[in-house]
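hey team, just a heads up i'm posting the complex here instead of the shared drive bc the drive is being weird again. everything in one block, sequence lines first with there labels, then the predicted structure for the whole assembly after. its two chains so it's a bit long, scroll down
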Amino acid sequence: MTLSRRHFVMGSTALALAAPASIGRAASDNLKFASILDLSGGLDIYGAAMAVTTKLAIEDINAAGGLLGREVELQMYDAQSTIQFYTQYATQAAAGDKADTVHGGITSASREAIRPTLARFKTLYFYNTQYEGGVCDYNNFCTGSTPAQTVAKIVPYAMKKWGKKVYIVAADYNYGQITAQWMQKFVDENGGETLDVEFFPLDVTNFGPTINKIQTAKPDLVISALVGGAHVSFYRQYAAAGMMKEIPIASTTFGVGNEQTLISAEEGNGMLASYGYFEGIDNPQNKEFLARLEAKLGADRPVMNELAIRSYEGAMLWAEAVKAAGTADREPVIEALRSGMSYDGPSGTVNIDAQTNHCSMNVYIGELTDQTWNIKESFVNQPPADTQMVCDLNENPNQSTFLFENGLAAAGIK
Amino acid sequence: MDLVAAIIFQLVYGIANLALISLGLAIIFGMMRVINLAHGEFLMLGGYTVVVATNAGVNIWIAMLILAPLVVGIIGVIVERLLIRWLYGRMVDTLLATWGLSLLLIGLVTSIFGASTATTISPPLGIIRIGDYSASGYELFLIVVTAILFVAVFATLKLTRLGLVARGTMQNPEMSSALGVSTTRTYMITFGLGAGVTGLAGGLLAPVTGVLPSIGATYIAKAFITVISGGSAILAGTASGSVLLGGINGIFAFITGPTIGEVALLVTAIVLLRLMPRGITGRFFRKYL
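-- predicted structure starts here --
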């Protein structure tokens, strides 16, 4: 056996991390729930609200007597919008804290940084963010909505409302690139035409040239998958050039960072978005949840969106599975989840789909009026049809891959 | 024809935008040799000043044109007194200290205002039409303000006693001191001025970009690249750096898309600094301010 320096360093680091934790474990017999989110840096517009609901979920679980008679202990890590911290904290949570489950990751880049690590350490991982689909991993449950659930709904809706010629703007990393391919596919399938697709690095703040190009192309609508604080500038500059009234925007990302509160009411009016959750959902769980949140945090509470709500529901799904399995050990919990575990949360009923470890969920189309989303249409119990095309964990549970890594064509989707 | 006009307008706006975010840094870094990594956060504080003031009912023009530079200028003076004045002539130490300052400011603003801030300020002024194309009137206003700001800084440095003393002190502090100039006071005022100009820029950009605690990070690299490419002459350097880099960025962004636009900007800066290590004004416009 050859012992390379890298292996030696990795091994000894893992040992060093594990040693104090194993001493700590003897003293406490709490279940450990680790959360890794961006609570500072450019992506905190998403992470802040997710952290609030994650904390709330753990409090709720403990208030109801904990799990298996044990308290659940929340360990929160702030990855500071830096991918390198994700890897570091995932290792720490798995090897150091010996967490029973890790929830977190916001961008697809951060998920791909921690997913392999957690699979290697055999630590159950939940990714509670809407994303581009395609993760096929026995160890990883993706509870957020995927393009077949949202993009497939909003594209025909927006095209029927506004016209067939579409211009796509998206963030320049795996989420934006792959989502843009889904958008093109759905535009095509609905008899529309994609005039152009443009990608933007996350720190671009001047969108002038793009706005000129959109004016030249004269599309009927713009579909956006822009991400992060800097990209908010696009909507502001687009509105400032008087374009909102001429060429409307539909989006699959606008709103999950509560961007509607970052731009003024008249700038945002009429925009469309599609998610697995909007605050206006009319069910008792949602009303009770929002009332409780308001009682706890006051009127300044963050506006709830899919990412925040799914972070809560993801934690609850895990808790339900632990109860059902009667243990927090990974294998039985995964089997309990895969037996079609469902949870009735604020967004409606969320079902785990055993074929993909994704969720079937209700999907909603919302229209922005005075900084509030009004639900225009709802779709009940939508399956993750995109990932189902390529992934079958029932047949082969021994998988841990991201099948859309090289785009849809490479995954065999035309 | 309309398209050409619209593109030229956007190019000029892109250049003005770059010049606006870089000018304050040119004063602090180009002139005082303080590597101010908190430059982006000064811009961010200017933006927050406008947001807070307009939410409190202050007229937006007063908030942008008077309050933003004033508040950030005062913060600049405080920072200079507490932190920077111990570090003159120690460039690497200023880098570390201002980096720490930048993290502190981001943390402070986040803990006071939260991670994302409600900005309900819309760009004032309407829309200008160029045939089939439309652009924001506010962008035209920003171009004009940037030009005025350059003239004002030029006039201050060239025509006033303060400007003469400041330039002299930066070139040779011992000699200035021997001639009876209070160099510490001059340093303080110059730093405050640079911070004030930065605050004004941040305030002016608040209506067209998102105002977030972390927004400074998106400006800092571009500001440094512009100033370093420009070279040691504050105004001529910033102006020529902005025209070159902003122009190339805009043209490439229009032809191929923003990713290549950013790449083109960076490649240009690298090639430029390889050929002209002291920046554009190290070779051309050497006699200029």
